[in-house]
Design goal:
By secondary structure, this protein is an alpha/beta fold. It has a domain of 183 residues: Isopropylmalate Dehydrogenase. 34% of the residues lie in helices and 23% in strands. It contains eleven helices and 17 strands. Helix 6 links the parallel strand 13 and strand 14. The two termini are 38 Å apart. Bound molecules: 1,4-dihydronicotinamide adenine dinucleotide, 2-oxoglutaric acid and magnesium ion (MG). 1,4-dihydronicotinamide adenine dinucleotide (NAI) binds next to loops. It is an enzyme of class 1 (oxidoreductase).
């Protein structure tokens, strides 16, 4: 569908919307592809989205956390770059919506302990105490410098499954209507294990670690998630043709796990083929839960975000047995930081996943209703979506729509 032209300058791309006649190709500068697509008619509904079906046990755990003023304490990591701006939007909207949450601000400035990068004890204590955290993006230096704090947090709290839904936004036109992908990424190992060394000068080795335990844990979570939300098809995404042992182990465990869930249809697909198919026609993925090793999920989730309007829109949940941390798919966006240009929707929707996880569904419904209404009206939206609104103006519009 998306065919880049090599001869035109500036670079242009031509595509055909699935909703317009065959001949109706449109050619636009590539960086405007998402924005100006009057031919495509996004028919996504303003329906509420449910990402979590918390067990009675889990809800009781959070109820037990309720303080004497009826509020729940939640750890908040504002993060780097655009983090403080988008966190402010969440705080403002939650305050206007009277959500019974008190934010406990957490500092995760890295420290060195026995030669290892660690996060301060006070941060660990806060998240352990509150069971949940909302987290803005944390920047990782390229090449040298400290290890990723995002990964450190995931490992510290054993947040083994990363749930990344990506669904079209009503009223926001993109090349494909009604995208609805749901990806579950192994979150603690794989290419992200950070085990690297120099073999000899000019030769480095990076270990992709795949274990039975971590694979089984995320696979079980994916099958159970599929069962709970009634999305009864699970597909493992892998590259076991090349990484016969590591991805091979992941895949064989997936096949085994499928036998424990006979009502769930299971199949597998090679990663490169998944990439091609998702960008060619995402609709066959609308009824599936995709489960995969760490790096594949990282890359595929950014790619899926591109199908619905970009990283300003996609949330995620890092789930563990005890604690869970909710964050946007995107990073610290240094190119727009401090300018009031960031779209806080991704972090807001991550906070909706958090409220649902905590069983606070009425508040989740009310806020997501206001978010989707504001986006559908299209009057007060941020620059990434083709609007002119500043981050705080968009937040004010959401508050008005509460
Ligand atoms: N979970 C996390 O905290 C993550 C952290 N990072 C870190 O973020 C830093 C920057 O990474 P990049 O590759 O630039 O990726 P990025 O996700 O920060 O930005 C990619 C592009 O998307 C845009 N964008 C992202 N979020 C947006 C928002 N809310 N509203 C509007 N536009 C938005 C940015 O302006 C940029 O053009 C790096 O240090 C990286 O390590 C990256 C991904 C995830
Ligand atoms: O930790 C980082 O720097 C990047 C993490 C990332 O891209 C992600 O979790 O999606
Ligand atoms: Mg990423």
């Amino acid at each position: 569908m998306l065919a880049a032209r090599t001869s035109a300058a500036p670079a242009r791309s031509c595509f055909r919307s699935s909703t317009v006649p065959r001949a109706a190709f449109v050619c636009l500068p590539v960086n405007n592809v998402q924005r100006h697509l009057p031919q495509a008619n996004n028919t996504a509904q303003l329906q509420h989205r449910s990402y979590a079906t918390p067990t009675a046990e889990k809800v009781a755990k959070f109820k037990g956390q309720k303080q004497s003023d009826g509020k729940y304490m939640v750890s908040l990591i504002e993060g780097d770059g655009i983090g403080p701006e988008i966190s402010q939007s969440v705080k403002d909207i939650y305050s206007a919506a009277n959500v019974p949450i008190k934010w406990e601000s957490v500092d995760v400035t890295p420290m060195l302990k026995d030669g290892k990068t660690v996060i301060p004890d006070s941060a660990i204590e806060s998240i352990t105490r509150n069971y949940v955290a909302l987290k803005g993006p944390l920047a990782t230096p390229v090449g040298k410098g400290h290890v990723s704090l995002n990964l450190t947090l995931r490992r510290t709290f054993n947040l083994f499954a990363n749930v990344r839904p990506c669904k079209s936004i009503a009223g926001y036109k993109t090349p494909y209507d009604n995208v609805d992908t749901l990806l579950i990424r192994e979150n603690t190992e794989g290419e992200y294990s950070g085990i690297e060394h120099v073999v000899v000068d000019g030769v480095v080795q990076s270990i992709k670690l795949i274990t039975k335990d971590a694979s089984e844990r995320v696979l079980r979570y994916a099958f159970q998630y599929a069962q709970d939300v009634g999305r009864l098809k699970v597909r493992a995404v892998h590259k076991a043709t090349i990484m016969k042992m590591s991805d091979g182990l992941f895949l064989s465990l997936a096949n085994k796990m499928a036998k424990e869930y006979p009502n769930i249809e299971f199949d597998a697909e090679l990663l490169d083929n998944t990439c091609l198919k998702v960008v060619t026609d995402p609709s066959p993925y609308n009824d599936k839960v995709l489960v995969m090793p760490n790096l594949y999920g990282d890359i595929l989730s950014d790619m899926c975000a591109g199908l619905i309007g970009g990283l300003g829109l996609t949330p995620s949940a890092n789930i563990g047995d005890e604690c869970s941390i909710f964050e946007a798919v995107h990073g610290s966006a240094p190119d727009i930081a401090g300018k009031g240009l960031a779209n806080p929707t991704a972090l807001l929707l991550s906070s909706i996943m958090m409220l649902q996880h905590m069983g606070l569904t009425e508040h989740a419904d009310r806020i997501q209703g206001a978010i989707f209404k504001t986006l559908a009206e299209g009057k007060t939206i941020t620059g990434d979506l083709g609007g002119k609104a500043k981050t705080h103006e968009y937040a004010a519009a959401v508050i008005k729509n509460l």
